Amino acid sequence: MKVLVVGKGGRENALAWKINQSSLVNKVYVAPGNPGTEKFCENVNIEDDDIESLVLFAKKEGIDLTIVGPETSLALGIVDIFEENGLKIFGPRKEVARLESSKDFAKKIMKKYNIPTGSYKTFYNLKEAKSYVEEKGAPIVIKEDGLKAGKGVTVAMEKEEAFEALDIAFSIPNNKVVIEEYLDGFEFSLIALAHEDKIIPLEVGQDHKRVFDGDKGPNTGGMGVYSPVKRVTKKIIEDSVEKIIRPTLKGLQQEGLPFTGFIFAGIMDTEEGVKTIEFNVRFGDPEAEAILPRMESDLVQLILNILEEKETLVEWSKETTCGVVLASNGYPASSTKNSEINIPENLNSIVFHMGTKEIDGKIYTNGGRVLIVVGKGENLKEAKENAYNDVKKIKCDKLFYREDIGNKDLI
Ligand code: AMP
Ligand code: GLY
Q1: Does residue 125 contact residue 150 with C-beta atoms inside 8 Å?
Q2: Residues 87-123: tens digit of each pLDDT
């Protein structure tokens, strides 16, 4: 098979790396890819939002299967357009992708189909939103409606913080804001391959959303990750599949919006059981970078199985992975570009590129999250030590990282 991966971040680097190991695959293309995917795949110079050119390329090359990384391509309707052109693609259609691209839509589905989640209300103007916060008090969560790369959410511990977030959100014309009950508990990410109401759940990962150690500072796209997550027992995973993922897929089916692709649930294990924080309609980033290196099954075979409605088991390595993100100074508010990075060749960890570029054989920073270093070990402690040992060998004076990835499960 010839497989095309759409996207250019760390998630796509990990997907392409894993797909490249499949015995079913002769060639992997990544559009546009990055210097990390360049090493073992063919990068195609087409941006992930240029759907027309991607279709032309897939037809010309005879691509057998396209796998979409980013939510932005899905929200643009890449799946609808590929399917109209008779091309096989793994991802949800545009209407279905609203499960991620509209918090309001996701909440409506959850409410209608009794999926456990926090209570909420949607607002279209500042005055009413503020009086709701006044009435409910803090902690409370403010979420802008559209796609925000993980940055449109404010978990406000004080009312004033919520007011500030609302002022900013409503300074954008026609903005829509979901205000949600604060959920207390242990957060984890569950990703499954899905088609209609069939599911192949993967092992879970634990993302680190806040920018600084101790979960301080603003939310980011994710600063580190480990897998598996000891505290998330088999029972919690089963509950998450049966109470959250399966009824959501069934609900979407009933709405005439059948899901295909990776479904990602951000879940809080609370005193009252599992509750949904959010849905994404694609693999997580950085979850993919920690979960895929532990997968022993052939990912392409799993995708073919689910498309044929076969719920097969996934084989996993017993090892733990721990991924540490190196981000540009200033992230998530801003990022510096064009700083040279020196990455030694002989690291034990896997290095996936998230936001880099290559000029004359040298690697430079080119975005907020730049690299992720994924260490492996017999347990989390070992995986973490291995990751940080290698992080320290990477030289660049414009990068920073959290020092405490994995600590939540070590205490
Ligand atoms: P989201 O983009 O909806 O995943 O939100 C980003 C992050 O904010 C989540 O990963 C959580 O850590 C946090 N968060 C979102 N919603 C809630 C909530 N209702 N209660 C507590 N924390 C939340
Ligand atoms: N790691 C969370 C996300 O991919 O949105």
Answers
A1: no
A2: 999 999 999 999 998 888 999 999 999 999 999 999 9
> Which residues surround ligand 2 with Cβ inside 6 Å?
150, 207, 222, 280, 284-285, 287
Residue nearest ligand 1's atom 11 by CA: 277
**Residue 241, helix vs strand vs coil:** helix
Q: Give CA torsion, residues 340, 344, 349, 352, to 10 deg.
A: 30
Best probe residue, ligand 2, of 285, 289, 325 (max atoms within 8 Å of C-beta): 285
d(CA 337, CA 329): 9
pLDDT tens digits, one per residue of 174-187: 888 999 999 999 99
Model pLDDT for residues 229-278, shown as the tens digit of each residue: 999 999 999 999 999 999 999 999 999 999 999 999 999 999 999 999 99
Q: Answer whether 391's CB lies under 8 Å from 401's CB.
A: yes
CA 382 to ligand 2 center in whole angstroms: 24
Task: Give the span between the Cα atoms of 271 and 149, in whole angstroms.
Answer: 29
Taking the CA of 215 as reference, the closest ligand is: 1
Whole-Å CA distances, 22 to 67, 69, 164, 291: 14, 18, 49, 16
Dihedral angle computed from the Cα positions of residues 217, 219, 221 and 222, in that order, rounded to the nearest 10 degrees: 60
Separation of alpha carbons 245 and 133, rounded Å: 30
Please give the domain boundaries of the chain with CATH numbers for all domains. Answer: 2-90 (3.40.50.20), 119-181 (3.30.1490.20), 186-307 (3.30.470.20), 320-410 (3.90.600.10)
Q: Distance between CA 259 and CA 251 in Å, rounded?
A: 10
* Residue ID of nearest Cα to ligand 2 atom 2: 284
Rounded Cα gap, residues 27 and 411, in angstroms: 44
70 and 355 Cβ atoms separated by less than 8 Å? no
pLDDT at residue 408, rounded to an integer: 85
pTM over 0.85? The answer is yes
**Ligand positioned closest to the Cα atom of 157:** 1
Residue 2 backbone class (left: φ over 0; alpha: ψ -120 to 50; beta: rest): beta
